[in-house]
Amino acid sequence: MNEIREKARKLMKGHCRVCPVCDGRACRGEVPGMGGMGTGSSFMNNVEALSRVRLDMRLVHSVTDPDTSCELFGWKLALPVLAAPIGGVSFNMGGGMEEGAYTDAVVGGCADAGAVGCTGDGVPDIIHQSGFASIRANGGRGIPFIKPWEDEELFRKLEGAVAAGAGVVGMDIDAAGLVTLAKMGRPVSPKSAEKLAKIVERACARLIIKGIMTVEDARGAVDAGAAAIVVSNHGGRVLDHTPGTCEVLPAIAEAVGGKVPVLVDGGVRTGVDVLKMLALGADAVLIGRPVSVAALGGGREGVAKYFNTLKGELVQAMVLTGCQDLAAIDGAVLHDE
Fold first, then answer.
1. What angle do CA 205, 246, 143 make, to 5 degrees?
2. Predicted TM-score of the model (pTM)
3. Nearest partner of 278 among 236, 321, 235, 337, judged by Cα
């Protein structure tokens, strides 16, 4: 992984420093790029809030070989982790890799590791087209995310995603505030509950709604028919001064009450972080920037290596907290100060 990170650092120069700790401090305000909006506080809050979550170490038990697998959207996953939808290699990552090679690395590397890769959308069209092609090449094992465009573009892209073999499609409504899209003059917007219901009905696939940060929005998405929600502030790239995702996750998970899977991203870097998010109420997590670094620095093999590293870290964390399987990970492993 050190070699992968070093290569990525060279290729992403000027767009990502590949810091030893990816916490948003060095890249605050760098959008486009891999930084956070404005002061960078939303990005930093994701990482800092998760770092404050403490675990109780338990060793008087018989857990030695925990099971990290789960089932999600009909897929058997080796671990409850997906690659978050990130695109725009040319303007966000330095252009050191072609967009198609990047999505092939993410989707293919995830598949090799028994995980699932999500792909992004934006301007230019090569972003979503590359994602669709990579998902098609991997037998539909991937989730394309579409921005909250106005009707014609939104439904055209949703239809394209289904045609590429995707049985699960996402919409990141938090992208409504992306500076990059605003600069390019492309209309994106929030969606009312009524509008969401119509989109779900026309999607022709299970639709995930990403960008949920309140209980009210979670309930609205579920009532509209979402197949799952993702608790996310878009990596801190759209609104400054939001709380970290792990801070709002417990209340949202409780409100959803198991009606649909609750996923979360934001500041997850290690297998220990994965365990923390599961203990706080998530069914699975998405990881963004570190996967991009792995893809730029090591291609498909680099992504698979990163996910296998995460799995090893998760196994160790489960042993040290006495969790035989994912169902055993709950609030009891959290240290209550």
1. 20
2. 0.96
3. 321
